[in-house]
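Collaborator request, handled under Task 6.
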Amino acid sequence: MHLPEKLHSLFRAPSVTRTRMVLALAIAVAADGLQLLLGPLGWAFIDQAIDFVAMILLSWVIGFHVLFLPTFVVELIPLLEDLPTWTACTAAVIALRRRENKLPPAK
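Structure tokens returned to the collaborator:
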């Protein structure tokens, strides 16, 4: 297997099943909730660690999507990190993946 084939298989989006959707939304809600609860404590780098773990876990569960990158960047901005951005982004990615699965294959 050549390198492009390995990269393609690495970033291939898995099929979005009900279990994957529930797990992805649970991860996103947990990340947003933890950041909201731990935010006032002012611990250095905890929010960034939560964001990093959330992005990795979400990419593992529902596959990497380019929308995760701006969400990760927005989470680095101090007051915007309290918004439920991971939950909103995960819901958007799930909707886009479900739409992609319903489209007929291109000829």
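The cover message to the collaborator said: "The radius of gyration is 15 Å. The CA atoms of residues 45 and 106 lie 45 Å apart. Please let us know whether this matches your experimental observations."
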